[in-house]
Design a protein that fits this description.
Elements (H helix, E strand, L loop, with lengths): L2 E8 L9 H13 L4 E3 L4 E4 L12 E9 L3 H15 L8 E6 L5 H10 L6 H10 L3 E4 L5 H10 L7 E8 L10 H10 L4 E2 L2 E2 L4 E2 L9 E7 L2 H11 L5 E9 L21 E14 L5 E7 L2 E7 L5 H7 L6 E9 L8 E11 L4 E4 L11 E2 L6 E2 L6 E2 L4 E4 L9 E2 L31 E2 L2
Parallel strand pairs: 3-12, 15-17
Antiparallel strand pairs: 1-4, 1-5, 2-4, 3-4, 5-6, 7-11, 7-12, 8-11, 9-10, 12-24, 13-14, 13-16, 14-15, 16-17, 17-23, 18-22, 19-20, 20-21
Helix pairs in contact: 1-2, 3-5, 6-7
The structure holds zinc ion.
Length: about 450
């Protein structure tokens, strides 16, 4: 009788150019070449809390879900072989977890949920592995066990996206991509793909620059959409093959939980509502800081220079504005308290902002001078006096209530929800019709 298995792995990345998705690509290729295995979903590409400083590049963990007639022991041995073959870098703190069963236990799902926004420890991960008799391997620092377990438990039940990742044959050849084709693809498929091209900065976003085997990655709303976008770019040279992943990228999943300003925890991600209590100021390097408060406390908010136009919008905030902010808590240092590194803000209510001016002389039309507090005004030209009060002029704000402001595409993180996705609600079932491609 075949059983259901969930395989999670993490942190086979390293700066020397390996990539956890490439391990997944190769493992899936071997798994589906055996008729005893049947994938139940696209491989899941799970991005975890991006505000943990000791993460690997993208903090990506992966899960493969399948029905298999292989024994648990044989399947685990096969996966372990891949971990050992690929995670060879001394920096790859790889982890592998295998769970057998249809339903993921609530405790594992809860662990995965917390992995999105908090900092989890190895002790807890090991306890869960023991409690549910999971098969596991972890190498070096063993940190990868946390991500592997978190990947098993996140079945992407609600909002999700897809990414087609294509791999190259030779790592030494430069990636050759036709920019005009990518710009065209991005325009033609704009409602169904996202973050392919930053038109504001004329920058291609689908190809990495490092030494890794990834040739390109196209993100979108459905498997068909990313495949279609890829077809527009084909043919491309030096391709080993491609695979489509289902993912939480572009969903903002790490920013759903509230952050308490009472005692915000370092490296946690989330959101909170507050009133601007200290106006934005620009510091050396072009970084913008302001402060918000609510009944729980106060916190400084930071928008860094690379967020460019986002920072310009933040500068337009003023004391009294009510905003929702999302981001990650930066650890305090001896010089600075904890800061919320902003990933978005939403204007809830704008304060009215006025400038005042002295009344004008009715005879001469020039601005009158003040005779002192509460003493009225006097025209310096003709001597005419006036008891009128100052004119208040409401200033246009440049910000819109209800609007969400986010950094430009080039400054997005994998989990950043792009503007085009804010109107979407996706709670549909996943029809699994796997379309993957292999070459040589
Ligand atoms: Zn006058």
């Amino acid at each position: 009788m075949p059983s259901t298995f969930h395989i999670g792995f993490d942190d086979t990345d390293s700066s020397e150019g390996m990539c956890t998705t490439f391990l997944c690509y190769n493992l899936v290729k071997e798994l589906i070449s055996d008729t005893r295995n049947e994938l139940l979903d696209y491989p899941n590409l799970i991005r975890l809390n991006p505000n943990i400083p000791w993460k690997t590049r993208g903090n990506a963990a992966l899960a493969i879900r399948l029905r298999s007639s292989l024994s648990k022991k044989n399947l685990f041995a096969l996966c372990g072989k891949y971990i050992k073959r690929f995670a060879t870098s001394p920096r790859a703190n790889a982890g592998l977890v295998l769970f057998e069963g249809e339903e993921i236990p609530a405790k594992i799902q809860d662990f995965s949920n917390r992995a999105m926004y908090s900092v989890l420890g190895l002790v807890e991960a090991r306890e869960i592995v023991r409690e549910f008799c999971l098969e596991s391997i972890s190498l070096r620092s063993n940190q990868g066990l946390i991500g592997a377990l978190a990947a098993v438990g996140n079945v992407l039940p609600s909002d999700h996206t897809f990414e087609l990742i294509a791999y190259r044959k030779s790592l030494s050849k430069p990636r050759v991509l036709d920019k005009s084709k990518i710009v065209m693809m991005s325009e033609v498929t704009s409602s169904k793909t996202f973050s392919s091209y930053d038109s504001e900065y004329d920058r291609i976003m689908i190809a990495p620059h490092g030494p890794d085997p990834v040739f390109l990655g196209i993100r979108g709303e459905s498997a068909a959409a990313v495949k279609n976008a890829f077809n527009i770019l084909c043919p491309v040279e030096n391709l080993r093959g491609w695979m489509i992943f289902r993912s939480n990228q572009g969903t903002g999943e790490h920013l759903r939980e509230p952050i308490s300003l009472d005692n915000p925890k370092a490296y946690y991600s989330g959101k909170t509502l507050g009133t601007v209590c200290e106006a934005p100021r620009t510091q050396i390097g072009g970084h913008v800081f302001f402060e918000i408060e609510n009944e729980q406390g106060k916190i400084g908010c930071a928008c860094y220079e690379p967020t460019a136009v986002f920072r310009e919008f933040a500068k337009m905030l003023t004391v009294g504005d009510v905003i929702e902010v999302g981001g990650g808590i930066r650890k305090n240092t001896t010089l600075h308290p904890k800061v919320l590194n902003l990933e978005y803000f939403k204007v809830v209510k704008l304060a009215e902002k006025f400038t005042s001016s002295n009344p004008k002389c009715l005879r001469c039309g020039v601005s009158m001078g003040s005779m002192g507090r509460g003493q009225g005004f006097r025209c310096e030209k003709c001597g005419q006096k006036s008891s009128a009060s100052k004119h208040l002029i409401e200033q246009p704000r440049g910000l819109t209530e209800g609007r969400i402001y986010i950094p430009p595409v080039r400054a997005h993180r994998h989990l950043t929800k792009p503007e085009s996705r804010f109107q979407l609600t996706k709670k549909r079932s996943i029809r699994v019709k796997l379309i993957n491609g292999w070459e040589s």
